[in-house]
């Protein structure tokens, strides 16, 4: 039997994670989250996550530091962070982006480890 569930999520009521992310729609194998108006500052410690991430910049600029490389993210840019890749972001100006994670980042505390 196929899954016929349909979900609509109003981001005004979406839960927030400890890192500032806002959790949007989530399915069994993929989830979306929003980083909204993240402010400039020093990059966090590099992390390697148990999920793959693809993202799209809506506004602002940031540097993605991944596996010894730096990728400049600007409005219209999209990117991929492979599962278990060591990475961090440095926000250069107020930054808003949407990401999809597979498997869902928020399940089983994957986002908080």
Nutshell version of this structure?
Helix content is 0%, strand content 47%.
Question: Which features would summarize this protein structure in a list?
Answer:
113 residues; mainly beta; 6 strands; 0% helix
What does this protein look like?
Helix content is 0%, strand content 47%. Strands 1, 2, 3, 4, 5 and 6 form a 6-stranded antiparallel sheet that branches. It has strands spanning 22-26, 31-38, 52-66, 69-73, 78-81, 87-102. The chain is globular. With 113 residues, it is mainly beta. Strand 3 (52-66) and strand 4 (69-73) form a beta hairpin. The chain has a domain at 17-83 and 99-109. 16% of the residues are buried. The protein has no helices and 6 strands.
What is the typical, i.e. mean, pLDDT?
A: 90
Count of alpha and pi helical runs? 0
* Strand runs, count: 6
> What is the N-to-C succession of helices and strands?
EEEEEE
Span of the ends, CA to CA: 34 Å
Topology:
Layout lengths: L21 E5 L4 E8 L13 E15 L2 E5 L4 E4 L5 E16 L11
Antiparallel strand pairs: 1-2, 2-6, 3-4, 3-5, 3-6
